[in-house]
Amino acid sequence: MSIHTPGNELEASSVIREAAARGTQLHVLGAGTKAAIGRPVDAENGISSRALSGITLYEPAELVISARSGTPVSEVVKTLAAKGQELPFEPMDYRALLGAQDEPTIGAVAAMNLSGPRRIMAGAARDSLIGVRFVNGQGEVVKSGGRVMKNVTGLDLVKLMAGSWGTLGFLTEVTFKVLPKHERMSTLLLRGLDDKRAIQALSEALGSPYDITGAAHLPAPDLQGARTLIRLEGFSVSVDYRLGELRRLLKRFGTGDILEGRGAEAIWQSVRDVTVMPDRAERAIWRVSTAPTRGPDFTAWLSKSIDAQWFYDWGGGLIWIATPLVADFGAAAMREATKVFGGHATLVRAPAEARSQLAVFEPLSDAVMTLTRGIKASFDPAGILNPGRMYAGV
To answer: Which residues form the FAD-binding PCMH-type domain (predicted)?
Structure first.
């Protein structure tokens, strides 16, 4: 495959316009660290944002940063940290899970709507994304949003591009709202809870006024090894007060331990990047979103059909599930479980052959699929951008 690496927006427009005229399909890439997610793209050529790098605007007082889409996430994080700021939504890093080596790009964060444990407090990446520039499937440069958050009428292109996986346009620049970095992080660790009691504890914590920024449960074959994590961030005095109140609120679940420092940071990073999953290298990986209170029933029902391992994030609303690398990788049971308990499941990691044959993303209803096809046709009439990445024929 020949991969184009345009150095500016005009070059990107030219590449895409020529491809559309010829009907040449393009695999849309950043650095390629997440190319193994989704259905394999059957394209003759690719277009990468690698050469579109650099921060174009940073105004710490306004809490806003803009960067070209190929800018490494690490560069954005470092720039923000120098001013005591951060991306609110704590984007996950898929490299360990997918075995990738290159630097993830900020454009991919927007294109895939990547969000980590702090999503329960700060919202998803799309909630902080306030501006985009992209080239659509006709080679037209489109700008939407800007440096401030505002209400819009009609089609919100910023939110539409977030999570579109490169199927609607080639992102060239993104603008995010940022927040001050927290002074202190502290985690309340409860031990020995089964899934249902753990989710009850997390739900009570999240329903409290104590501003929880992380809520995860890590089951274990031996129940005594199960860990339930509740994170608080903010000014030190505030964290101390909220920890005390939280312990009183959750005293029937155990007194709990307090984790701080590098050890606490490491465990939340392992939750964010799914490296906490045991035996993950030998299994397919699914990402399931469902109602938090239904999570334990979802996994209990699923485990009756397949050999599954899992852990919970987002208070139980996000479940990472590992299934054996055999047969359909648990797809039939997973789809049935989402019908029974609600939610949607995405096959994040599996061999390319399996991803080409299975529904990687949750199947859409006929009405939603019709709408999806219509939106794709309006942005990319020739169907050249990441064809079939999310759904066959789209």
So the answer is: 1-181
pTM above 0.85, yes or no: yes
**123 to 83, 118, 214, 232, 250: CA distances (angstroms):** 22, 7, 12, 16, 25
Question: Structural domain boundaries of the chain?
Answer: 2-180, 184-272, 280-357
Task: List pLDDT tens digits, range 344-353.
Answer: 999 999 999 9
Decide: helix, strand or coil at residue 94: coil
* CB-based burial, 127-141: b 16+ in 10 Å, e otherwise: bbbbbbbbbbbbbeb
Distance CA 217, CA 376 (A): 38
For the domain made up of 280-357, the CATH class stated in words is: alpha beta
The 10s digit of each residue's pLDDT in 145-184 is 876 544 444 458 999 999 999 999 999 999 999 999 999 9
The helix (run of H) or strand (run of E) holding residue 378 is: helix 366-379
Separation in Å, CA 289 to CA 21, 281, 318, 345, 392: 39, 22, 5, 6, 22
